[in-house]
């Protein structure tokens, strides 16, 4: 039953002559690990493009070596150092919080320069703020810092929150963070994907925003990995669904 609703929804797109679209974002990459190898194998075997959000201040040479030999992977920028700068009693945030915006912007610029130098054309200047949070006043500065995109969580309210910046978010997370970072369950995750696809098809949310799967390769338990492998096998080449690269999701490839 866990896949039935999702597969019906994909079929509903095809029935009206449309192709459903999705993309896969994975956060918190800093070095090569067996978990990263596993993720790249899962997505690569299904020919699903992977957008890997890399923490610039912590990324090491082993990560470059792992990514550079996999052209299926596009690098995005995951903040700067993934450090919480929130005021006491506030929710965790790095891109904002109790710091001057000039300081935050300078960090992001350093991070962008580092990722550009290391990854070259494998890096797409899209900002993925840690904890999916960013100070609203920082958004107008991002295009001037060289960012063309922003990715957080939940259906976007505006495709272009400021001129020159496109937002494409994620909508389904296999991890139940509040229950000890365990697998949320196949039915819950499949339903989250189906719900966003249905809302797009019916006009309840922006129909042009691809449906985003958000993973964290360093945090998945074994049931979560089993689910991701099944998802890739079931949906990687399923008629009616197209997996977009990050470049395609953010309109950089025609």
Description:
It is a single chain. By secondary structure, the protein is of the alpha/beta class. The protein has seven helices and ten strands. Strand 7 and strand 8 form a beta hairpin. Helix 1 runs parallel beside helix 5. The mean pLDDT is 96.
Rg computed from alpha carbons, rounded to a whole number of angstroms? 18 Å
Work out the helicity level: 25-40%
CATH class call = Alpha Beta
Main sheet summary: 8 strands, parallel
Strand tally is 10
Task: Tell me the fraction of residues in β-strands, as a range.
Answer: 15-25%
**Runs with pLDDT <50, length 5+?**
none
Task: Identify the CATH homologous superfamily.
Answer: Glycoside hydrolase/deacetylase
Give the second-level CATH assignment, the architecture.
Answer: Alpha-Beta Barrel
What's the topology here?
Layout: H1 4-15, E1 20-29, H2 34-45, E2 50-54, H3 61-68, E3 73-77, H4 101-119, E4 123-127, E5 149-150, E6 166-167, E7 175-176, E8 182-183, H5 186-202, E9 211-215, H6 222-235, E10 241-243, H7 246-249
Parallel strand pairs: 1-2, 1-9, 1-10, 2-3, 3-4, 4-5, 5-6
Antiparallel strand pairs: 7-8
What is the compact description of this entry?
The chain is of the alpha/beta class and 254 residues long. The chain has seven helices and ten strands.
């Amino acid at each position: 039953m866990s896949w039935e609703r999702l597969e019906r929804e994909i079929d509903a797109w095809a029935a009206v002559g449309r192709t459903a679209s999705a993309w896969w974002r994975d956060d918190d990459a800093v070095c090569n690990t067996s978990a990263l190898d596993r993720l790249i194998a899962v997505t690569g075997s299904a020919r699903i493009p992977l957008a890997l959000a890399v923490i610039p201040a912590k990324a090491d040479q082993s990560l470059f070596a792992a990514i550079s030999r996999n052209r299926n992977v596009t690098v995005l920028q995951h903040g700067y150092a993934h450090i919480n700068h929130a005021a006491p009693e506030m929710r965790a945030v790095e891109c904002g919080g109790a710091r001057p915006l000039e300081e935050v912007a300078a960090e992001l610029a350093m991070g962008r320069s580092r990722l550009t130098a290391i990854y070259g054309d494998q890096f797409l200047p899209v900002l993925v703020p840690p904890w999916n949070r960013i100070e609203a006043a920082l958004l107008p500065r991002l295009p001037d810092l060289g960012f063309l995109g922003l990715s957080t969580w939940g259906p976007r309210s505006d495709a272009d929150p400021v001129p020159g910046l496109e937002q494409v978010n994620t909508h389904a997370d296999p991890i139940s963070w509040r229950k000890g970072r365990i697998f949320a369950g196949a039915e819950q995750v499949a339903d989250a994907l189906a719900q966003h696809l249905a809302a797009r098809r019916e006009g309840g949310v922006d129909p042009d925003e691809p449906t985003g799967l958000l993973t964290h390769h360093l945090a998945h338990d074994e049931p979560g990995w089993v689910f991701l492998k099944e998802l890739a096998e079931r949906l990687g080449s399923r008629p009616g669904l197209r997996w977009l690269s990050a470049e395609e999701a953010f309109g950089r490839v025609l």
